[in-house]
Amino acid sequence: MIIPLQCEFFALEGLSALMNTIQLIQQNFNKNLKIEGILLTMLDKRNSLSSLVEKDVREHFGTQVY
Question: At what angle do helices 48-61 and 9-28 cross, to 10 degrees?
Fold first, then answer.
C-alpha cells in the first residue's frame, strides 16, 4: 500500500492511528499486507511545519518516503 500524507501536524496523528489499524489487519486478516511507501503531499519547503513533518516521517520510514 502507498499512503499519501499531507505535510501537516494532524496528518502525523492520523498516520499513527493508521499504522495501528494496519498492524491489526496484518495480525487478523492479511499477514502479507505491507507499506510500500509514504507519499508526501502539499510539501512547501518555505513552511517550517512542512519541513518538520517531512523530517519526522523520513526519520521513521527512511527510504520508504517518496
Answer: 20
Q: Which of 7, 4, 3, 5 is nearest to 45 (CA)?
A: 7
3-state secondary structure of 41: strand
Instruction: Give the pLDDT of the chain (66 residues) as one tens digit per residue.
Output: 999 999 998 999 999 999 999 999 999 999 999 999 999 999 988 989 999 999 999 999 999 999
For residues 59 and 12, the answer to whether their CB atoms sit within 8 Å is no
Amino acid, res. 48: S
Q: Which residues, at least 6 apart from 7, have a Cβ–Cβ distance to it below 8 Å?
A: 40, 41, 42, 43, 44, 47, 49, 50, 53, 54
